[in-house]
């Protein structure tokens, strides 16, 4: 199949474009949000092409993957075809809804021409789709390999824009954890986070895995997110994890992989124990990796997507097969 999608979330898109299809991502001169093009910090296969908006109209796409409300208008303007009517379309919802639960109506709610795909069951539960067909395809990760050394008696944290996102990402909780163990904060604007964590900065993705794996444990303090891919990457690396038990985390992290709780004091104690006990940390990291491979492996993710794509464009899928 030939699929159009925007490069919005680097880690998710990296997993998605490892399938057996032809992928096109829009690219603009400024490589802004609507035309990032091919990733420069992730490893993408050669089956991905980037095309400028003016070249998209002549492309015979079998499906369009939408991830932001404005892409409905962009797709119609750039393709000359209406997503869901003139070309099969799937809307992928990456985020947990914000606001009062009674007001959590999705932007594509009440449509019968689109399929809404959630990346977690938590999202599907909380978003109001108002009759739009929907399903869940859980995350998949390109396995970075078991790299854990835990040589540094410190904890790694990955938060992009930690200061701006504040309580959503649990930035305010870092001071409590830092009283127990040294923290190294990775992510965009880490140097301006204003936290007691040591700013490790925004490092390239491949080196990020290496640096994370040198730390004794991974801390996931995020209060309200869909399911942080950095958490799943840490588990794939073989790191023990200490995480707030919010949104989808309890589904993703077995207790034997570290510690999951909404009790910050209990988490702080658990983090200190792991950082000071390399043997326990390594054993729990092995459990974390096994759990991540079993539930969030790339093969399962791509198989789920193949079935879903075939369901919206079955004739094309059968011809390709």
- Classified in CATH, the superfamily of the largest domain is Glycogen Phosphorylase B
- What order do the SSEs take from the amino end to the carboxyl end, as H and E? EHEEEHEEHEEHHEEHEHEHEHHHH
Kindly report how far apart the N and C termini lie. 10 Å
Strand content: 15-25%
Oligomeric state of this protein: single chain
How many DSSP H or I helices? 12
Protein structure class: alpha/beta
Largest sheet strand order: 3-2-1-4-5-6-7
Number of domains: 2
Largest sheet data: 7 strands, parallel
Question: pLDDT under 50 segments (min length 5)?
Answer: 317-321
- List how many beta strands DSSP finds: 13
CATH architecture classification of the largest domain: 3-Layer(aba) Sandwich
Shape: globular
CATH topology of the largest domain: Rossmann fold
């Amino acid at each position: 199949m030939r699929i159009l999608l925007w490069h919005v979330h680097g880690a998710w898109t990296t997993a998605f474009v490892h399938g057996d299809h032809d992928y096109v991502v829009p690219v603009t001169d400024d490589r802004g949000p609507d035309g990032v093009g091919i990733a420069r910090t992730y490893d993408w296969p050669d089956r991905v092409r980037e095309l400028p908006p003016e070249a998209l109209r002549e492309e015979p796409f079998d499906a369009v993957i939408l991830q932001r409300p404005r892409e409905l208008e962009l797709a119609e303007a750039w393709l000359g075809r209406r997503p869901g009517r003139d070309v099969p379309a799937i809307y992928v919802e990456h985020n947990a809804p914000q606001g009062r639960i009674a007001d959590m109506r999705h932007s594509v709610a009440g449509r019968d021409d689109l399929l809404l795909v959630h990346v977690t069951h938590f999202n599907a539960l909380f978003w109001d789709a108002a009759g739009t067909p929907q399903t869940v395809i859980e995350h998949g990760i390109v396995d970075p390999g078991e790299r854990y050394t835990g040589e540094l008696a410190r904890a790694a944290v990955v938060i992009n824009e930690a200061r701006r996102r504040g309580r959503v990402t649990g930035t305010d909780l870092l001071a409590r954890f830092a009283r127990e163990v040294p923290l190294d904060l990775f992510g965009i604007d880490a140097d301006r986070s204003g936290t007691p964590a040591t700013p490790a900065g925004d490092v390239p993705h491949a080196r990020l895995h290496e640096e994370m794996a040198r730390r004794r444990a991974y801390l996931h303090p995020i209060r309200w997110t869909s399911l942080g891919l950095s958490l799943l990457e840490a588990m794939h690396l073989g790191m023990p994890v200490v995480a707030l038990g919010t949104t989808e985390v309890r589904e993703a992290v077995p207790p034997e992989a570290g510690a999951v709780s909404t009790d910050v004091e209990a988490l702080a104690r658990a983090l200190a124990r792991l950082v000071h006990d390399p043997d326990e940390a390594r054993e729990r990291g092995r459990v974390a990796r096994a759990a991540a491979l079993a539930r969030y492996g790339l093969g399962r993710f791509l198989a789920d997507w193949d079935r879903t794509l075939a369901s919206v464009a079955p004739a094309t899928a059968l011809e390709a097969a």
